[in-house]
Amino acid sequence: MSLLPFLRRKADAPAASTDRPKDGATARFLGGWSVEVMPRTAEKVEDFRAILPPGTRVYVAHIDGTEIADMVATAKRIAGQGFDVMPHFPARSIPDRATLGDWIARYKGEAGVTQGLILAGGRKDPAGEFRSSMELLESGLFQGFERLHVAGHPEGNRDIDADGSDRLVMEALRWKQAFAERTDARVALATQFCFDAGPVIEWAERLAAERIDLPVHIGIAGPAKLQTLIKFAIACGVGPSLGVLQKRAMDVTKLLLPYEPDEVVNALAAHKAAHPGFGIEQVHIFPLGGITAAANWANARTGQQPALAANG
């Protein structure tokens, strides 16, 4: 069934240029990009060194119903191929402190993990005693982790602020800022994917005004079919930038063409070049159309080579 009827019409906004900045801003902005995998999608990649540049950070998404052993095995395999691995730790999917400690011990002991994405998680009803990422961080069990990422919401989060404001989100970010200042781990915000640079720029400016200076790893959807993106965007609660997909869906000449995120990435890259203090530190790619397609797209725009090619 088509998902297009569920999209509400919005006034067209001026489109950013899709021309790649001529000064290499896009390549610099994309440099060091990261990517997300699930155990079942990782199985489709024979060797990550054949598609990912050296040093790529790979997030391992936690999928409810998938055995922790499978997620740890995925992390171990990718780490064994030379990549930094950052598994998800979703608070509402973790029944108790003992389980959290067990997961951390497995990831550290079997895969050498020292990085984690700490988030509340997508489910509304907690599996046990944890409801928020802050409760996980307060557990003290992530001692020794070199890097801890937490969630950022450029387009708001109705699960947290049901009234459409950002009051509670900002309170949480101030707490995370204070946590970053008292921990030895490097802390950054990793965001949901978005399709429009405007809300991202406004959000980053709001963070700066609130004196929240955590670096941002902005989520971008990799190349994919339009219908696939719309499905994920609705399911994940993507906000105002959903209008970008709506506009594309109404253009018959683009309806059947794969979406590529050049427009939003070029606009953010140009803004970063013009405003060096812009808080976006890195791009995180959600490979909704496949890991290989996402990696090929990013490599083509950065000039990077996969690890096997780079090592000869």
TrEMBL record:
Key words, A-Z: Oxidoreductase
SUPFAM superfamilies registered for this protein in UniProt: FAD-linked oxidoreductase
Entry protein name: Methylenetetrahydrofolate reductase
